[in-house]
């Protein structure tokens, strides 16, 4: 991969030296052979292990000596019609057989024996009386003959639970359409048979009825989902079985239990009464079909199921000369998801081919179709297209929607309502689904090849290796493993931390629930005293800070003195309207981070060499806030030297999340976001070089904005003197309410830049062009979980109804390279030298020595700083490539956004993780740092809470100088979704 990237950077697009060229096809062949070899022996090992534990548990079923049970359904129907057998006699024989074998097989789960015998007697009486005409017999080809069907199909009065606990005890109040057809043909239903949970697995097992056994060997699988049918049929418990099939559900059990099974041409048999199907669904893969012991019964049953018209369409009464049929065969579809074929399976297949060679005029032809390799991807895609299908909802009887992550964890800890197969299906739902255009195209192509090619003359083909496809498979495997690695991280951290959670106190003071803008207005009008407001926030900090550890240095007495002075000046009337205009936050408290200079307060950056150091001046942006009348209460915690996505340093410790104190608050403005969300400050001002405002804003459920770059002075932010030139560093507000963002930003950028940004210009949300990226496809970032995808989709769907033009999905190749681009541009920051900065620029540390010290005797630095040391040792991207890629990406985005567009972008793969979990997934901040690289304005917007009570949100991005568009969309989303949700109860 490194070489490929180097080639891209050097402009090499595909030209390779012939002598050094790798033969991709040979590599693939070798890898495939190795894989198949290993897979073959893994399968054998699996069988040996399972056999070791199970072979001795095999239970034989009783022999079957009743001659009735050995006749085909068609011949039994003829004998009943002619009076050679009584229907009651036949029905009783099958009931007796079921009672013999079912205790061993567990096939039938609900019966109607008494009713079946009554129906049989009535039929016998009608036949004996001669009141049934020949026409009646034609319409009722199975008169007096018993049948069974699966429990997921409605049979009036019988169990209809689909094997899910939410439907336990449920009985069908009607007959499924195909059950009616069977009954109208004179057949008598004996009962319903076992299925997998919700029909979706290749073994028949559910928590309501248990597992069904194979009559050939009771330690073996019967298949699914018609496993109960096939098992009972093979054991002689029914002459006719009717199943349904969405992915082999008739044929898998038929194979495993040695009977015939047929999936008919689609669309000919009504699906009403098959699980949730109403029969009015558009094109579906679901089909009903017969399972029989004798091939002659297949056609007889199918004619009943499809009806007279479709029987004619299928030409079922037309004679077929087998010798005239063209036989083609696929001996191996080469689907790497399927186990290698064993000799016995190859042999039986060859015997069938050899037989047809002997009896046919034309010899069977071997054919291959490329598309058969993609069955797994194609089937999964088409399952998502089934009308109304939602596995997570269906498995609750459509009463809610399960969280697959939670259910998986529950299954492996406390067990749950679902079988392991259902957990597998839930996991499968989380994996990427094939692109719709590709799936439809590939399906159509495969159908066309099979239907319209000169199949009989088509020769086997050998395809060259498609490296992109191999890459796609490897990528899918990587994402699958990465997803569960992340889940494992959360499970382990949760196991040790969940019980340590400490709730913060409720907040009943109404002052603390008002926006900063409204507080300023009330102070200005004399409706509130500044002292009253400042005291309320000081009291709140004293309540929550012992739990959160957010504020690390305070100036309460000075703040109260300033507030009293302001109150006096307002009361005396010496403050004019012009003064109020110049001081929009007069008397309103604020806080900022400890790495920004606030005169007289701690200014250590979280490093030991600066322990006890106080600022002797105010940072420029702090001076702007004070000049706007705001009163600083104190400074808040940060990561060491601001460079980590969690707030923790050896001087002040770790800051906790008010929504769950075992969770991360983000960094580097984590102390600000934590205090703000807990009601400890009405205005927070942070700084942002790689997401430092927005990561904490996301994790703590508040608004955060990184403005257009270059508009706010940086002097007083850590070592900055304000004359460093172009930088990714930016100052920005964090607020609980969207209205406050624009008010604070106007103070920070000043009057001239306010005009440049058109912050006083109204924005009509309806006219904004909405673009969105669902997944930037950055492999350094964890896979997105469902709740994060859902919240972004909800925002898109809401804006689709709000704006004039439909939101547009966009993709940019360059978003994959964020980690490289950000690292490069960090090296371009004026005076940047992490090894020197971490010592307060007194010397330069040796990263190797400090790393060894950290893991042996300890040291002055956090693990996050050690990780930063190691990251700095890695090679930097080439400057030309990084600058070119940045410019290219910037131009592509500018072209899409224009002056009236915003981009909706994901904030994170999942909500706030546990403390220190970021060490194991250090690059998830790429979703935020991208916008520092491009210097675009971006707002973090809170979008409510997850099921576990943690904040959710998205980012809204605009082109430079279009900050007001971010604010307009943020306000609209706040209106629609509620915005900030307090982490405590309000009274």
UniProtKB/TrEMBL annotation:
Annotated ranges, domain Amidase: 89-415, 532-966
This protein's record includes keyword Transmembrane helix: yes
InterPro entries per the UniProt record, alphabetical: Amidase_CS, Amidase_dom, AS_sf, FAAH2
Keywords, comma-separated and alphabetical: Membrane, Transmembrane, Transmembrane helix
Pfam families: Amidase
Cited Gene3D superfamilies: Amidase signature (AS) domain (3.90.1300.10)
A Gene Ontology cellular-component term: endomembrane system
Signal peptide span: none
Transmembrane regions listed in the UniProt entry: 30-53
Keyword Cytoplasm annotated: no
PANTHER family noted in UniProt: FATTY-ACID AMIDE HYDROLASE (PTHR43372), LD38433P (PTHR43372:SF1)
Family, per entry: Belongs to the amidase family.
Designated name of the protein: Amidase domain-containing protein
């Amino acid at each position: 991969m490194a070489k490929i990237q180097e080639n891209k950077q050097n402009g090499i697009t595909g030209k390779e030296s012939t002598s050094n060229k790798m033969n991709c096809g040979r590599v693939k062949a070798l890898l495939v052979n190795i894989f198949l070899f290993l897979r073959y022996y893994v399968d054998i090992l699996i069988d040996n292990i399972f056999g070791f534990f199970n072979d001795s548990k095999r239970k034989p079923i009783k022999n079957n000596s009743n001659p009735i049970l050995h006749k085909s359904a068609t011949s039994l129907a003829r004998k009943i019609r002619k009076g050679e057998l009584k229907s009651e006699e036949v029905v009783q024989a099958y009931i007796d057989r079921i009672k013999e074998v079912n205790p061993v097989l567990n096939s039938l789960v609900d019966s109607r024996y008494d009713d079946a015998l009554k129906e049989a007697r009535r039929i016998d009486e009608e036949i004996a009386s001669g009141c049934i005409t020949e026409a009646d017999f034609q319409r009722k080809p199975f008169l007096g003959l018993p049948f069974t069907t699966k429990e997921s199909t409605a049979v009036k009065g019988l169990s209809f639970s689909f094997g899910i606990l939410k439907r336990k005890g449920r009985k069908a109040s009607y007959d499924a359409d195909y059950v009616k057809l069977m009954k109208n043909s004179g057949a008598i239903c004996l009962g319903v048979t076992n299925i997998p949970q919700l029909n979706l697995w290749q073994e028949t097992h559910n928590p309501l009825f248990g597992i069904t056994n194979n009559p050939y060997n009771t330690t073996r699988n019967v298949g699914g989902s018609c496993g109960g049918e096939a098992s009972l049929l093979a054991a002689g418990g029914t002459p006719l079985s009717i199943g349904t099939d969405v992915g082999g559900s008739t044929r898998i059990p038929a194979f495993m239990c040695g009977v015939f099974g047929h999936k008919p041409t689609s669309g000919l048999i009504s699906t009403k009464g098959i699980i949730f199907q109403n029969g009015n669904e558009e094109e579906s893969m679901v089909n009903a079909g017969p399972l029989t012991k004798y091939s002659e019964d297949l056609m007889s049953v199918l004619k009943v199921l499809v009806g007279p018209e479709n029987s004619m369409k299928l030409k079922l009464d037309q004679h077929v000369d087998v010798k005239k049929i063209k036989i083609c065969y696929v001996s191996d579809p080469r689907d790497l998801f399927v186990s290698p074929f064993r000799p016995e399976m190859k042999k039986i297949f060859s015997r069938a081919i050899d037989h047809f060679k002997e009896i046919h005029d034309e010899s069977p032809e071997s054919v291959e179709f490329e598309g058969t390799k993609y069955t797994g991807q194609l089937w999964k895609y088409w399952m998502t297209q089934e009308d109304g299908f939602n596995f997570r909802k269906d498995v609750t009887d459509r009463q809610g929607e399960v969280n697959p992550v939670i259910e998986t964890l529950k299954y492996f800890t406390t067990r749950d309502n679902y079988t392991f197969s259902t957990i597998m299906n839930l996991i499968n739902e989380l994996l990427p689904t094939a692109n719709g255009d590709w799936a439809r195209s590939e399906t159509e192509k495969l159908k066309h090849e099979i239907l319209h090619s000169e199949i009989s003359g088509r020769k086997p083909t050998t395809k060259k290796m498609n490296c992109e496809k191999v890459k796609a498979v490897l990528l899918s495997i990587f994402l699958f493993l990465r997803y569960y690695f992340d889940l494992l991280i959360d499970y382990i951290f949760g196991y040790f931390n969940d019980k340590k959670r400490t709730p913060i106190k409720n907040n009943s003071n109404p002052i603390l629930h008002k926006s900063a803008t409204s507080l300023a207005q009330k102070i200005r009008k004399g409706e509130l005293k500044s002292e009253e407001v400042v005291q309320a926030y000081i009291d709140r900090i004293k309540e929550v800070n012992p739990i959160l550890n957010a504020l690390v240095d305070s100036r309460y007495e000075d703040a109260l003195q300033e507030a009293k002075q302001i109150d006096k000046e307002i009361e005396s009337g010496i403050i004019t309207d012009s003064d109020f205009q110049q001081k929009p936050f007069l008397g309103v408290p604020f806080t900022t981070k400890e790495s920004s200079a606030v005169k007289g307060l701690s200014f250590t950056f979280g490093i030991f060499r600066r322990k006890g150091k106080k600022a002797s001046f105010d940072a420029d942006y702090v001076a702007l806030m004070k000049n706007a009348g705001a009163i600083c209460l104190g400074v808040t915690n940060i990561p060491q030297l601001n460079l980590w996505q969690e707030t923790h340093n050896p001087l002040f410790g770790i800051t906790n999340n008010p929504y769950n104190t075992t969770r991360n608050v983000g960094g580097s403005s984590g102390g600000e976001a934590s205090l703000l969300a807990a009601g400890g400050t009405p205005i927070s001002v942070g700084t942002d070089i790689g997401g430092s405002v927005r990561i904490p804003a996301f994790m703590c459920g508040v608004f955060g904005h990184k403005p257009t770059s270059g508009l706010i002075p940086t002097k007083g932010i850590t070592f900055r003197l304000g004359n460093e030139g172009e930088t990714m560093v930016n100052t920005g507000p964090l607020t609980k309410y969207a209205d406050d963002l624009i008010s604070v930003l106007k103070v920070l950028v000043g009057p001239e830049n306010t005009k440049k940004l058109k912050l006083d210009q109204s924005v009509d949300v309806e006219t904004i062009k909405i673009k969105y990226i669902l997944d930037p496809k950055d492999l350094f970032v964890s896979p997105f979980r469902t709740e994060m995808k859902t919240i972004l989709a909800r925002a898109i769907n809401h804006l689709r109804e709000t704006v004039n033009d439909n939101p547009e999905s966009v993709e940019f190749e360059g978003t994959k390279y964020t980690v490289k681009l950000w690292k490069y541009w960090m090296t371009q920051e004026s005076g940047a030298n992490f090894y020197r900065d971490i010592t307060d620029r007194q010397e330069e540390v040796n990263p190797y020595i400090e790393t060894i010290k950290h893991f042996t005797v300890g040291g002055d630095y956090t693990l996050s700083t050690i990780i930063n040391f190691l990251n700095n040792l890695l090679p930097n991207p080439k400057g030309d490539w990084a600058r070119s890629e940045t410019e290219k990406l910037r131009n592509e985005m500018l072209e899409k956004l224009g002056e009236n567009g915003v981009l909706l972008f994901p904030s994170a793969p999942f909500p706030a993780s546990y403390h220190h979990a970021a060490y194991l997934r250090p690059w998830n901040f790429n979703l935020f740092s991208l916008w520092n690289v491009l210097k675009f304005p971006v707002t973090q917007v809170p979008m409510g809470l997850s099921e576990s009570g943690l904040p959710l949100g998205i980012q809204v991005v605009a082109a430079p100088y279009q900050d007001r568009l971010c604010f307009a969309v943020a306000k609209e989303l706040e209106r629609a979704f509620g915005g900030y949700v307090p982490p405590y109860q309000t009274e």
